[in-house]
Amino acid sequence: MFQLDLFLQAIFSAPLFQGALLTIGLSLCVMAVSLVLGMGLGSMAGSPRRSVRWLVTLYVWLFRGAPALLVLLFVWNGLPQISEIFRAGWFTPFVAAFLALSLIQIAYLAEILRSAFAAVGRGQQEGAAALGMHRWQIFLVITMPQALRIAVPSLMNEFISLLKTTSLATVISLKELMTVSQFAIATSFRFLEWYGAALVYYLVIVSVLTLAQNRIEHVLSRGYR
Amino acid sequence: MNTQTAIQVAGVNKWYGAFQVLKGIDLTVRKGERIVICGPSGSGKSTLIRCMNRLEVHQEGSIIVNGIELTSQLKRIDRVRSDVGMVFQHFNLFPHLTVLENCTVAQRWVRKLPKKQATEIAMKYLERVHIPEKADKYPGQLSGGQQQRVAIARALCMNPCIMLFDEPTSALDPEMVKEVLDTMISLAADGMTMVCVTHEMNFAREVASEVVFMDGGQIIERNKPDILFSAPTHERTKRFLGKLLH
Ligand SMILES: Nc1ncnc2c1ncn2[C@@H]1O[C@H](COP(=O)(O)OP(=O)(O)OP(=O)(O)O)[C@@H](O)[C@H]1O
Ligand SMILES: [Mg+2]
Predict the structure, then answer these.
(1) I need a surface site. Which of A66, B33, B146, B190 has the fewest CB within 10 A?
(2) A216: chain B residues, CB-CB within 8 Å
(3) Do A124 and B92 touch (CB under 8 A)?
């Protein structure tokens, strides 16, 4: 039967807490890098050169189509077979998971960001350009804030779904939340308590993110209410 | 090209694909002149005025603005643009910034002015267009006429020596047209060099040094407003004005 004291112990245990930190850390790293590169890839989708657009399409097609589990295993087990570099000590499960999940996340974010930037409209860029603003100033001060406002709900959904996808990294023995719970279960056989504790962690993190999303949307929607 | 010339357009041809929008345009705007451009829809008025700050590029001929020729070799087109104000049909205000921020953003990023000074300049011009009390509002909270006046103030904050207007009143409700035209008339009275695409004939009559009539990508004729309106020489001008006045 479910034992409350074991459950509470599990929740407040150091490994689970560290696992949660790793889950959050990995998600944040992947998201940050994917935002920047996704923006780059998204803007390449509007390139006048056909070969560039074609490459973007190919990339998105590949990494939206490939299951995360497959990409994770490919990166962790496959890359070391391809090259010497990936057999060195720096290629930890964290790095592998970061690489694999970023490859996928970039593909998703590129699509979201591309359409968000397209929705801002040429008039905004022209209005700023006519004032003598430089291209990167226009991007930073005029286009990006407006595109982000449009993209925030979708970006947050992607972030939440990424956070849960990191649990797949248990197959390459990254010590995130799920792996830590599995370890504990392997010695204690207390399924209910440990899975329950892990669930609590996920729910808390996602709730905090949802609150943050409301806050960000509120700030970005100034001027639109 | 002498120092009294603000804009010189010479032999400009422009194509969109195979379609020629501008055909051999010659137009000189002297400092302090107010040129009004009119003509039927699709005649190339917007294209011409947008070439004057290189929002559109021309393929042949030359355009010289404040002594600087606009070419693809020109590295800092933004420097030319910062001295040429432009007001658009659809305002193009930045919806995520307040009215005040709309007026200070370019001063701060382009002119590198400190916030306090930029704010003072912005308030000066918002007062000039009679809406200082809206400084902390967002564009979406303003009427069309108010938004267009903010757009004019925003351009004036850069202290431009030339102002371009592309149908600034044609997206406005009739009762708001006057407040925008009055602002433009007072600018003209101050000696601002202006190029306006507009079909407001009373405005043209009151302020224009010259009215230019365009059709099919060409300048058909140009003259002082009273002469052009009362005695147009070309058949196409007559037809266009006839439609406009009735
Ligand atoms: N980006 C573009 N690509 C292709 N054709 C264009 C483009 N922009 C304008 N045109 C065409 O060029 C012609 C001139 O357009 P322009 O906007 O300069 O006309 P206009 O005189 O300003 O008309 P209006 O009074 O309707 O604003 C039109 O036939 C238009 O369809
Ligand atoms: Mg037009």
Answers:
(1) B190
(2) none
(3) yes
Please provide residue B161's backbone torsions phi and psi, each rounded to the nearest 5 degrees: -95, -10
Q: How far apart are CA B94 and CA B154, in angstroms?
A: 11
Contact A130 B96 (CB under 8 A): no
| ipTM metric | 0.92
Q: What is the pLDDT along chain B (246 residues), one digit of tens a residue?
A: 567 899 999 999 999 999 999 999 999 999 999 999 999 999 999 999 999 999 999 999 999 999 899 988 777 888 889 999 999 999 999 999 999 999 999 999 999 999 999 999 999 999 999 999 999 999 999 999 999 999 999 999 999 999 999 999 999 998 899 999 999 999 999 999 999 999 999 999 999 999 999 999 999 999 999 999 988 999 999 999 988 876
Helix or strand holding residue A124 (H, E): helix A122-130
Tell me the pTM.
0.87
Q: Which of A131, A149, A218 to mutate to test the interface with B (most CBs of B within 10 A)?
A: A131
* Cα A101 to Cα A29, A69, A88, B142, distances in angstroms: 10, 9, 20, 45
Tell me the count of A-B CB pairs closer than 8 A: 79
